[in-house]
Amino acid sequence: VAAALVVAAALAKEIGITMLGCMIAADVVLVPVVVTGSYDDHHTTQSDAFCCGGAAAAVAAAAAAAASPPAPPSFLRRFYRLVSWAVAEEPKCMRIAALAVVGVGYVRLRSWVAVDQLVRIYRKVENPIAFSQSPLERLLSTGHLHARYAGLLLWPLHLSADWSFECVPMISRLSDLRNALTAALYTYLTVVLIAARPWGLVTTWCRAAAAVMAAGQEESGGKKAAAKTKEEEEEEEALRLWAARWRLFVVAGLFVGPFVPASNVLFYVGTFIGERLLYFPSIGFCLLVSELLSGVLLWAAGDNEATGDTQPPTRVAAAEGAATADSASAGARASGQSGGEADTGDGASVGVAAAAGGPAAADGTIAGQCPSRGSSAVRAGGGCAATRDRLVAMRRIRTAATYAVIAAVLVFYAVRTWQRNWDWRTEEALFESAGRVCPTSAKVQLNLGILQRRRGDQSAALRHFRRARTIEPGYCEPGYWIGISLVNSGDPQSGVVELESALGCKYVAADALKALHTIYSVLHSNSPKDPNHVLGWGRLLLRPELRQLAQGCDTVERAALMAAQLGDVQGVASAVHLCKEALQQQQLRDELLVGLRGRDTGEAEAGGPGLVSDALTPVSPADGPEGPMQRCLEARRPVYHAIATAVSLGRRLSDSPRVLAQMYKYVRQLDTMPYCRLSSSSSSAYPLEGTATATPAHMHLIHTIQSTSPEDPWLQAEWGRTLNAVGRTQRQSNIAKVKYKGNINKTS
């Protein structure tokens, strides 16, 4: 049941699987090893219990004395006894094995589902340790990281929702004073480990296995296998060792163990410091603090008992001249018992009485000790009573101070918890508190800038964004927010530059592209005949990282047509060259991709991962090295040039024979290239609302020419075929047929 609950916890949060290690640690460290001492063929005679650390004395199995000792069992028989003991006699062996199987099964299941267990997509701003080039810096910074985690538990005064780079600077030198915190933490862990004597656990298991394998062999003369020890010494040692091993279990199983997956020791994680990672280790920390406070409270309670009316032996010397210094020190050693009884068995009490010059006094006191209240000695002289009263007052003050310190600690934790809860009441309060704790964190500065934007303070937002980029130049998100803030502040040119740079950041590329689309749409609506805004938008779409080559070429061709209508021959050539160059670079990337993946795989994935639209006809070997987009561009390029030349000479398009000749030539080529009528931008890595199905360049071109010659039946017929190709109505085809018949009638 416990293992099932652990798996359920792990499915909710990965850290839950560490409870398996906690349960295994409890079995190994705290639960005694039970050994059956005899594996006789018919019955078992005695049992032996090996407590952890030797708390209980081992009692060897003893059979009836025989005339001749039996032959020692064979190795196979001893091994069989060991396996039988581990399976049938010792339950914790089976528990440990079952927990290990559950843990391995969970890891295998998670590997099968998630493929990769580790978080590998992180940057320097999230975890700078993984990007350090110095092994010493990684080691020292990791150790200091552990000390900071422990410090957050011990003294949670400075808490932050984000501890990203560079909230806690890296440590690169041994002389850095922060290394003292690391040394203090690991010194405490080492002391806890040594005090528990974990090597004794190995000895216990070895003794248990040896006893099991040697069961049935008897000592000559029926001697006991275990030697007698002093019971009082063993009991005291066992209690001390059990307490030390309980502390080791808490530290290893509930404090350090749950933190190991996030410690950057086994592997690097995507979080430098995360307070949420301390939820589970805080259980072990609270247990350790509770143990400490309970010890202090028991110590204070023992002193209170010592200051009552029943006065126990104390470490105070008797009245002047009552005893010598040696006998007084002997009496002090004898008076250290907490229950008020003198130690017996070692002659200490006799020595104290002898030092006083005789037996116990008539009022029941012993020389070297203060008499109880109301005795004749106190009434006779108040010297010892005055000393005793001073000690009582001092102990009461110390007890009150102890309770005051404990109360202050509890009040501090309670007040800090209350204050921290208020930090989480709103998002603004949370990040403002993070800004007070981690003002040098790049992510905190970015979040503070976003908060300032919500409040309408663009200048303050820009300061936070620029500081975030200054802290970590490789942190690319601030570029997007700087661009947006500049545009909102009335500086669109600088904002566009920042937004274009942000297109290289995969985390904000989609948002930057949408913002640029809005900006260029506004610019185009303000100057609908200016091709520069359309050309600028198309140039952005042709960037390889955006994977919008088809839509970019459509937009660039539209800009070329707009430049041609203005008579700008050079603008047409520049726009066409821009698209042609992008297509050639894409072709080189496709060839490289084919070479890396193999010809078979490359042909199946022609065009690369999402770089060429599926709406285009795939390139076959007979098509040559040029793709369909490039062939369509080359077919339309003479038309653009003819239009630009005619307009620059002041001619109308309908009156230019060269324009009509180039247009008729292009229309005839469509019989072998019907895909030129289709939209090449039907797919996009970052689809924009209203642009994912942009009007193809062919439709713009045909519409421009046929609108200048509305009576031309061939242009009207092509316009109708174009509308049919994109799923529009057939009305234009019918109009073209009517006009074609009319022209035939006029000719006849």
TrEMBL record:
Example of a GO biological process term: protein O-linked glycosylation via mannose
Q: In which pathway does it act?
A: Protein modification; protein glycosylation
The DUF1736 domain sits at: 122-189
Stretches forming TPR repeats: 442-475
Q: Which InterPro entries match?
A: O-mannosyl-transferase_TMTC, TMTC_DUF1736, TPR-like_helical_dom_sf, TPR_rpt
| Matching SUPFAM superfamilies | TPR-like
Topological category with respect to the lipid bilayer: Multi-pass membrane protein
The protein's enzyme class: transferase
Q: Which residues form the signal peptide?
A: none
Any idea which GO molecular function terms this record carries? mannosyltransferase activity
Q: Which GO terms describe its cellular component?
A: endoplasmic reticulum; membrane
Question: What EC number(s) does its UniProt record assign?
Answer: 2.4.1.109
What are the TM regions of this chain, as residue ranges?
Answer: 248-273, 279-301, 397-415
Compartments in which it is found: Endoplasmic reticulum; Membrane
Keywords for this protein: Endoplasmic reticulum, Membrane, Repeat, TPR repeat, Transferase, Transmembrane, Transmembrane helix
In terms of superkingdom, the source organism counts as Eukaryota
Do you know which PANTHER family this protein is assigned to?
Answer: PROTEIN O-MANNOSYL-TRANSFERASE TMTC4 (PTHR44227:SF3), PTHR44227
Q: Which family does it belong to?
A: Belongs to the TMTC family.
Protein name as annotated:
dolichyl-phosphate-mannose--protein mannosyltransferase
Origin organism of this chain? Volvox reticuliferus
